[in-house]
Amino acid sequence: MSKPLPLVALVTYPQFSPFHFGVPYMIFSAHLPEQALFDVKIVTPGATALAAERGLLLQPDGGLEWLVKADIVVVPGWHDLDERPDPSLMAALRQARARGAHVVGLCYGAYALAYAGLLDGKRASTHWMAEQDFKRRFPQVQLDMNALYVDDDGLITSAGTAAGLDCCLYIVRKFHGQKLANKIARIMVVAPHREGGQAQFIEQPVAPSTQDARINQLMDYLREHLNHSHSVDDLAQRAAMSRRTFTRNFSKATGMSFVEWLINERLQRTRELLESTTLPVESIAALVGFKTPTSLRQHFKHRNQVSPSEWRRTFGRPMAGLKPAPSPPSRP
Asked: Over the stretch 194-217, which tens digit does the pLDDT of each residue have?
C-alpha cells in the first residue's frame, strides 16, 4: 500500500493576495509525471468562499478541521498587520503545531504565527518593509532580516514575494529531496536553490537629515567627502563640539555610532555605483573611502550576505558590457 501524500492545509484570509496564495498552491499542487508530491487542501475559517483583493472568489475544500490532520499548514501572507487572526484560527494553528505539524508563514503570514504566540523565543523572517513594525509588536521574536526564509524546528517563515518561492521549494526538498525539488523548480522556471541565509535585497534607508542642524551640516559634508579619511576628533572640531559631546549628539541624532553611519553611507554609495556603472571594485573602493578593495568586499558581504559582483549581476545595468547590434547594411 502506497504511503499517503503529505497533507498541506493552505489557509486563506479576507482580501487575500492572489499571487501570495498562488505561489504555495502552484508548488505544492505540482504533479510530476511519476507522482504527485502533496495533497493540498484550501482552507478558510468557516469553510466559506472568500474574495481576493481584486474580486476573485475562492472556493475552499473546507474549514479549520483540515488543520487537525495536516502535515504542513501554510498562511500565505496576511491582509492587515493591525488585525489579529480570529481566535479559532490561532487556536487551530497552535494545535497543529503542538501535534508536530510544520507551520509556515509566508511574507506577512509571519504575523499570523506571531499573533498566535508560535514564534515566541524563535527565529523568524518577514518582509523587510515590516521590520520595525514587527519588532515593535513582537519583541519576543528573534527577527532575522538577513534571511530569505527561516526554519526554526518546523516553524518556517519567509521574507517577501520571491522568497516565498524559495521557502516553498525548501519545504519540497525537506519532504521529497533535492532531485524532485529541482524538477519542480524547472517547471516553475526559477532557481532551484537559494539558501535561506542569503540576505533579502533590502533597501538601506538612511535619514537624509536630523533635528540637529550641526549634525546635518556635518552629514552633508561627509557625503560629499566619502573618499577622505575622517577622525572623530577632526569632526568634533568641525562641528565645534568636544569629542564626548559630538559622539553623544551624533548617536542621538542618527541612532548609530559615527563609524557605523559612515560605513553605511559608503556601502549605500557602493550599491549605487555597482548598479549604475561598470567601474571595477578597486575603483569603487577608492571613490567611497574604503582603504582597500578587500575591506570593501568584507564589509559588503557582511552587510548584504552577497558579494559586490553578485549584487551587480542582480541589479546592474542589463546591457553593461554588451556591444550594440550592428546596423543592417544599407541598400544599394
From this structure: 444 444 444 444 444 455 678 878
Q: Which class is domain 7-188?
A: alpha beta
Q: Give the pTM.
A: 0.62
State which H helix or E strand residue 41 sits in: strand 39-43
- Show Cβ contacts of residue 225 under 8 Å, excluding neighbours closer than 6 positions: none
Is the Cβ–Cβ distance between 38 and 18 less than 8 Å? no
The pLDDT score that the predictor gives to residue 324 is 40
CB 145 within 8 A of CB 202: yes
Q: Kindly report the CA angle at 126 between 175 and 59, in degrees rounded to 5?
A: 65
**Cβ-based neighbour number of residue 239 at 10 Å:** 18
- What grid cell was written down for 99? 501535534
Question: What pLDDT was estimated at residue 329?
Answer: 44
Residue 168: exposure state from Cβ atoms within 10 A (0-12, 13-18, ≥19): buried
Lowest mean pLDDT among 16-25, 52-61, 171-180, 305-314: 52-61
On whether the 213-315 domain is CATH 1.10.10.60, my answer is yes
User: How many CA atoms, within 13 angstroms, populate the side-chain half-sphere of residue 172?
Assistant: 29
